[in-house]
Design brief:
Two copies of one chain form a homodimer. Chain A is of the alpha+beta class and 387 residues long. Chain A has two domains: 2-257, L-amino peptidase D-ALA esterase/amidase; 265-384, ArgJ beta chain, C-terminal domain (Ubiquitin-like (UB roll), Roll), CATH 3.10.20.340. Chain A contains ten helices and 18 strands. Chain A has a seven-stranded mixed sheet with strand order 9-18-11-17-14-15-16, sandwiched between helices. Chain A has a five-stranded mixed sheet with strand order 3-10-8-7-6, sandwiched between helices. In chain A, strand 12 (314-315) and strand 13 (318-319) form a beta hairpin. The longest helix of chain A has 24 residues, at 234-257. The relative contact order of chain A is 0.14. Residues 171-176 of chain A have low confidence and may be disordered. Chains A and B meet through helix 8, helix 9, strand 13, strand 16 and helix 10 of A and helix 8, helix 9, strand 13, strand 16 and helix 10 of B.
Chain lengths: 387, 387
């Protein structure tokens, strides 16, 4: 499953003792020469493994990914960089690779050094445990406060894309991170991975919000080993792009569904914006509005808050263009506000999914966003676990 | 007190029946010819009274301000504009003014039309009740879910500045708004009010966050009637600017202290930023971070979340410049992170005020922000009052 669904990949997950009981070191390895790429957090404060892995990817094509959970190795200074480097070296030694061919990811507490003895032992154990059936074990070993593993597979004629992810917001005190590792046996040339990854990530992981936070460790890594021997064409490239988008979309949705304290999956669909950029800005502003999110928790179709949020979406140094007299808003298909006038209809909201649709009536820009609601449990999870 | 502290102003507050029991119509009038100005919400969705009052201020100097609470007259289409216009006309008739000399403000439920019979009767009653002692009554008649009236006065040699405000976030379902009315007997020339108001508002109302929301009705209005007959000079202008800043600052602080569900007044002080704009961006990002705000509620000096927020402060299409290796963070004076390295010190947080200080170590940019914490009561207030 997940990262071992595609041909030519092995994975494992072991308990190294960084976390008390849960598995905490995962390894993913391509069994044939692979190419790959990654997209990283844009936070100005970046964890040491992000810095080290970026450097590795600039030097070589990645053949393996090591992930540890429990300690994020962020805000750890020079020592953190050395620790990330040593982790890659240890994995490379165990796997017969160069250190530069290893991507290192960490998730967990910020500001605490990695317990290197435990971690390096875990890396050696994980290397010994590598298996073509190890996808599940790997997907479990990258979690922190997640309710469960997040995996997705898209099988196509001739090739497969599979992935695993973790993340439920930056929910634990000093815990960071959304991580995803995606593997495929589709053949890519060196340097091509990012070009496929970018649009897939933009439409998935970049369109979700649990709490609007951006962590120091966020990363999405793609490994492609060509083990499928599919004959590439414009058609298969399009099929691969679609499969990659499907896997990223499913993993992103799983992250929001597991958002801390979440009781509702809120889908915001904006169309008719003056530009696509503005559609994204408006959807994101609504998806991160505490008032919209608390109203959603209360199953309240509070379109006044949606209007106020839509009208204050940061864009281009000001706010995205919104003209209330052209704006139409619907909840679960029921139009509550139509071109500037309340319709008087208010739907009953119930269940665990709510769709808010906006037609801005200005142009062709469209975008969707997935969000969780803001609940007592979100506050509890983030306030009560004090240091 | 408040809007009647300066010489030559009268005010009143009456119960017109828009709200069930509380007073809901306030009137402030200058007894001598005044000049004035206002700053408005920048939300793209603006309430009808904002549209009407902007137009009035472009045509004439304001002599009176009418405020109603209970209904925001936002998202009410053409009818809303006519209602706001009729309110100004009724006030003008009762006061012997032109409609253009009246500023109209509303706060309350979005998407519901004003009950005009009640409101116009209230306006007539408020006009009849005007008194130089009416500041308190006016300050009470502009509230919605506020815990109590918010007033401030700064008396200087020769002149006085006084003000009232309402706002505790956009807390009630479909309720909007931060409103402030400030009066002074300091002599200003026509057209000068905005130039004094802008820096005072930028350093006060624009540096607070209860929930990061920007309402459809936010407004700050200044009336200056020159009743003090103070002799103007560069010195008195500076004294007036300082007094105006003091009143706006006190009102802004009162709004945050009354933030919905707030248990802590969080003060964020950023210095050493590459520019002042970036200092504001970083302070604002921290002040609106759900993770920092829940940690504050939990009295958790969670500097990892502060770092992650500081590193992702939107600025200039990207993030404000932050270099963790130059960054120092302190909680209540205790340095927890110093130029890239955790110090190991963690202060005990207790009480109802927390100060987080950041030195970015990059330049001379500095800014402060006041925020409330994110609590169970915030969620309760905003989720449970369903429509």
């Amino acid at each position: 499953m997940s990262v071992t669904a595609a041909a030519g990949f092995a994975a494992s997950g072991v308990h190294a003792g960084i976390r008390r009981e849960a598995p905490d070191v995962a390894l993913v390895r391509s069994l044939e020469p692979a190419v790959g790429g990654a997209l990283w957090t844009t936070n100005r404060v970046q964890a040491a493994p992000v810095e080290v892995s970026r450097r590795h990817l600039a030097l070589a094509e990645p053949q393996a990914v090591v992930v540890n959970a429990g300690v994020a190795n962020a805000a750890t200074g020079e020592r953190g960089v050395e620790d990330a480097e040593r982790t890659a070296e240890e994995a490379a030694r165990a796997l017969g690779l160069e250190a530069e061919e290893v991507v290192v990811l960490s998730t967990g507490v910020i500001g605490v050094p990695l317990p290197m003895d435990k971690l390096l032992r875990g890396v050696r154990e994980a290397a010994a445990a590598l298996s073509p059936d190890g996808g599940d074990a790997a997907a479990r070993a990258i979690l922190t406060t997640d309710a469960g593993p997040k995996q997705a597979v898209a099988a196509r004629a001739g090739f497969t894309v599979g992935g695993m992810a973790k993340g439920a917001g930056m929910i634990h005190p000093r815990l960071a991170t959304m991580l995803a590792v995606v593997t495929t046996d589709y053949p890519l040339e060196p340097g091509e991975a990012d070009a496929f990854l970018r649009p897939a990530v933009d439409a998935s992981f970049n369109r979700i919000s649990v709490d609007g936070e951006c962590s120091t460790n966020d990363a999405v890594v793609l490994l492609a080993n060509g083990a499928s021997d599919v004959e590439r064409s414009a058609e298969t490239d399009a099929a691969f792009a679609a499969a990659l988008g499907e896997v990223c979309g499913a993993l992103a949705r799983a992250i929001v569904e597991d958002g801390e304290g979440a009781t509702v999956l809120l889908e915001i669909r904006v169309r008719g914006a003056a530009s696509e950029e503005e559609a994204v800005a408006v959807a994101q502003r609504i998806a991160t509005s505490p008032l919209v999110k608390t109203a959603t928790f209360g199953r309240d179709p509070n379109w006044g808050r949606v209007l106020a949020a839509a009208g204050s979406a940061p864009w281009n140094g000001g706010f995205a263009r919104v003209d209330p007299s052209r704006l139409t808003v619907a909840y679960d298909g029921v139009v509550v506000f139509e071109r500037g006038v309340p319709t008087g209809h208010l739907p009953e909201l119930a269940g665990s999914a709510v769709a808010i649709e906006l037609d801005l009536g200005l142009g062709d820009g469209a975008a969707s966003y997935l969000a969780s609601d803001l609940t007592y449990d979100y506050v509890r999870l983030n306030a009560e676990y004090t240091t």
